[in-house]
């Protein structure tokens, strides 16, 4: 970043130069140079419109356009000289235009303010980021559905069975595919949130000018259309003063992060030696500099940890916005870094999970054995009794008694003797308790959205169709 001194573009009323530390504190160019493309696109749309309505001559428009195009090329090539004394992306571009084409550059800012300029640049960026994360979320969802399909038949053609938990206590057996489809369902809504947000922010604030609109005969519909927005914003104060589009984007990011963090937590837990449910690929795990045996789930831990900063970005901007009077305040300059950071963070996490999940190996025998432990079929036994007319509450009590007995004597339900089972309820027998396998348990859960293989297959098929 170059540090020089020249008269500010806004320097007319100032007698003394800006204090060096103020300049440093005030500048946003270190981070908002990322908006250069959007800024130049915005300027091109604005100047074309100024020509169309007759505010600038065709010749002036041509000179400005040519200059802006050349600057865009420099930016893309990395040849643009970003200057801190020029404060932000907008004044860097405008001053560079003046350096290049002379005083006519000063006509570009007719009927425009940096307030509507930054608002339009940042909306363009955020809308593109929302649509990009929607697509990346969809890609990960497709990977989840692929994993669900894959694990509907393990080596022996049988679906992989996983313990389902509540309170992290074994609850009931489920299909691993069912678990994948649960995350696919969350990701589907995450994608929807990005698309909804993109649609709501699809309005151009350009032409709101400083805050009150402008006396110049501008055509806001034309610039909105040229920039690919559905329409211009309807109120100039709102156009320059609102950042809920960024808040909505950050909130969709935060919710997606929460989902990816839960997934991370499960993968971290299930890949431990103690659980042993899956092995993460070497390509996506790391070692320890002291303990030779270690294989650490760093990707998942970082994905879980980064949820903290993604949530923080949302809280940060909410806090920035909450006390600011209408319309623009410099506080709003703090809106950008969090959006960039959440966008970058999620772009990489989504990609990493898309690569890592298909390379992970699930151990079907281990997960099935784990699913059978912890009396996971006790509900099936209670349901069985209830089907023969015993009120469910009573059946629950009876089976609870059997679980207590087995648990006190270090056994599973299927280890209980026929006498013990019959003593608990005359309509029960050891034959029945032994028939309560995890396979039968999952097969029985045929309710819509349940874990029976047919139901999970239907979920996966519906998702496939929706994705194609
Ligand atoms: N760099 C500023 C920002 O990001 C641009 C708008 C400045 N407007 C102003 N009135 N100072 O918010």
UniProtKB/TrEMBL annotation:
Keyword ATP-binding annotated: no
Domain Argininosuccinate lyase C-terminal residue range list: 375-443
Superkingdom of this protein's organism: Bacteria
SUPFAM superfamilies xrefs: L-aspartase-like
Cross-referenced Gene3D superfamilies: Fumarase/aspartase (C-terminal domain), Fumarase/aspartase (Central domain), Fumarase/aspartase (N-terminal domain)
Main localization (coarse): cytoplasm
Secreted in keyword set: no
Molecular functions (GO terms): argininosuccinate lyase activity
Pathway this chain belongs to: Amino-acid biosynthesis; L-arginine biosynthesis; L-arginine from L-ornithine and carbamoyl phosphate: step 3/3
Annotated ranges, domain Fumarate lyase N-terminal: 12-312
Keywords from the UniProt entry: Amino-acid biosynthesis, Arginine biosynthesis, Cytoplasm, Lyase
Catalytic activity: 2-(N(omega)-L-arginino)succinate = fumarate + L-arginine
Region of interest: Disordered: 446-468
PANTHER family, sorted: ARGININOSUCCINATE LYASE
NCBIfam families on file: argH (TIGR00838)
Family: Belongs to the lyase 1 family. Argininosuccinate lyase subfamily.
Protein name: Argininosuccinate lyase
Source organism: Deinococcus hopiensis KR-140
């Amino acid at each position: 970043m170059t540090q020089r001194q020249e008269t500010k573009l806004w320097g007319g009323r100032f007698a003394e130069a800006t204090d060096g530390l103020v300049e440093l504190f005030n500048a946003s160019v270190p981070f908002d140079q990322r908006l250069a493309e959007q800024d130049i696109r915005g300027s091109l749309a604005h100047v074309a419109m100024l020509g169309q309505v007759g505010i600038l001559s065709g010749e002036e428009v041509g000179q400005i356009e040519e200059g802006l195009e050349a600057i865009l090329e420099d930016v893309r090539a990395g040849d643009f000289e970003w200057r801190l004394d020029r404060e932000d992306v907008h004044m860097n571009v405008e001053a560079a235009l003046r350096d290049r084409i002379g005083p006519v550059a000063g006509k570009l800012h007719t009927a425009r303010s940096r307030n509507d300029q930054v608002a339009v640049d940042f909306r363009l960026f955020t809308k593109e980021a929302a649509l990009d994360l929607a697509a990346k979320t969809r890609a990960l969802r497709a990977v989840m559905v692929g994993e669900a399909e894959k694990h509907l038949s393990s080596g022996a053609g049988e679906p992989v069975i996983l313990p389902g938990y509540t309170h992290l206590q074994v609850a009931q057996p489920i299909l691993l595919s069912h678990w994948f489809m649960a995350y696919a369902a969350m990701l589907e809504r995450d994608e929807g949130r990005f698309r909804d947000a993109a649609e709501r922010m699809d309005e151009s604030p350009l032409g709101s000018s400083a805050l009150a609109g402008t006396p110049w005969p501008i055509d806001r519909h034309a610039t909105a259309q040229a920039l690919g927005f559905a329409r211009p914003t309807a109120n100039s104060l709102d156009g320059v003063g609102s950042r809920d589009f960024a808040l909505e984007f950050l909130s969709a990011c935060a919710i997606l992060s929460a989902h990816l963090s839960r997934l991370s937590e499960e993968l971290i837990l299930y890949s431990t030696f103690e659980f042993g449910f899956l092995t993460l690929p070497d390509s996506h795990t790391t070692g320890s500099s002291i303990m030779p045996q270690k294989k650490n789930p760093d990707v998942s831990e970082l994905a879980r940890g980064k949820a903290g900063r993604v949530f923080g970005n949302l809280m940060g901007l909410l806090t920035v916005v909450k006390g600011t009077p209408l319309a623009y305040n410099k506080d709003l300059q703090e809106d950008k870094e969090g959006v960039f950071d959440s966008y970058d963070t999620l772009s990489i996490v989504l990609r990493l999970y898309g690569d890592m999940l298909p390379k992970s190996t699930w151990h079907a025998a281990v997960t099935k054995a784990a699913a059978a432990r912890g009396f996971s079929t006790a509900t099936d036994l209670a349901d069985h009794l209830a089907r023969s007319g015993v009120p469910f509450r009573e059946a629950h009590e009876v089976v609870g008694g059997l679980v207590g007995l087995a648990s006190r004597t270090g056994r599973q339900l299927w280890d209980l003797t026929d006498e013990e089972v019959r003593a608990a309820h005359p309509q029960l027998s050891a034959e029945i308790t032994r028939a309560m396998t995890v396979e039968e348990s999952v097969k029985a859960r045929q309710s819509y959205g349940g874990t029976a293989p047919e139901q999970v297959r239907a979920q996966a098929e519906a998702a496939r169709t929706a994705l194609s």
